[in-house]
Design goal:
This protein is α/β, with parallel strands linked by helices. Helices cover 29% and strands 20% of the residues. It is globular.
Length: 247
């Protein structure tokens, strides 16, 4: 059943609408990865072709983990239990990975675990609302098969903040009706108009965040000398002390 769903997803991405989405997302990811350097970039899950997004990375190595051997990943593993060493990855890309996961919290915790200090996570997701949120009212409209666990960008922000990650950027993109044969004219013009005038109607979002590690700096206690007794001053009486306490 899982194999059939994966095949249907790839077939959907080969439609006119799916190809247009991948082209737009390639531009979004390229911009998000600009300035991300290091040794290792990791992509969780296959979306389109294996090199659709990793060709834009500037790290020394790139790897893909998927749950199916048929996707030809770099390694096989479960997203919520990554076979990756802790604090070893500079950037993690989740291209609609959470949309297909029934354990999104555990996936994000694993991402936080494998990321190095100041590492980046980039998430692509479908918005539960907007133009594509109305797909049930449009005859013939549909999401990619299997995308049943949509998370809003606002909720995802809250989850990442609970992991003590700093939100770097959020963008919303792709303003087309969810019809497989939809071939919009002047797509770049519609993208500019949508982002400027009605961003809430976007079909997708991109969110990037950075792992923060707060180091605790030990504070040395300030040692004070024992106060000296100054001659001529009387000891406070018991009555005076009681009055100050009552106040």
């Amino acid at each position: 059943m899982q194999v059939d769903r994966s095949q249907l997803k790839q077939e959907w991405l080969r439609t006119a609408l799916g190809e247009a989405l991948l082209q737009q997302e390639a531009r979004v990811v390229e911009e998000a990865l600009d300035g991300v350097f290091g040794e290792q970039c990791l992509q969780l899950g296959i979306w389109g072709e294996k090199r659709t997004f990793l060709r834009f990375t500037r790290t020394q190595r790139c790897s893909v983990i998927a749950e199916r051997l048929q996707d030809e990943p770099s390694a096989i593993g479960e997203m919520h239990r990554l076979p990756i060493e802790t604090d070893s990855i500079d950037a993690v890309l989740l291209p609609h990975t959470l949309d297909y996961s029934d354990r999104p919290h555990e996936v994000l915790r694993e991402v936080d675990r494998v990321l190095r200090r100041d590492g980046r996570v980039i998430v692509l997701g479908f918005k539960p609302v907007g133009l594509w949120g109305l797909r049930r009212l449009i005859p013939g409209a549909s999401m990619p098969p299997g995308a049943d666990h949509l998370i809003s960008d606002r909720r995802l922000k809250d989850w990442l903040k609970l992991l003590d990650m700093r939100i770097l950027n959020t963008s919303r993109y792709f303003f087309r009706w969810p019809l497989p044969g939809n071939k919009a004219r002047s797509p770049n013009k519609w993208e500019r108009r949508g982002q400027a005038w009605w961003p809430e109607l976007a079909a997708c979002y991109m969110l990037s965040a950075q792992k923060r590690v707060s180091t605790l700096t030990p504070v040395r206690p300030i040692w004070r000398r024992k106060p000296k007794v100054v001659a001529g001053l009387a000891e406070p009486s018991t009555r005076a002390s009681r009055i100050r306490f009552d106040r």
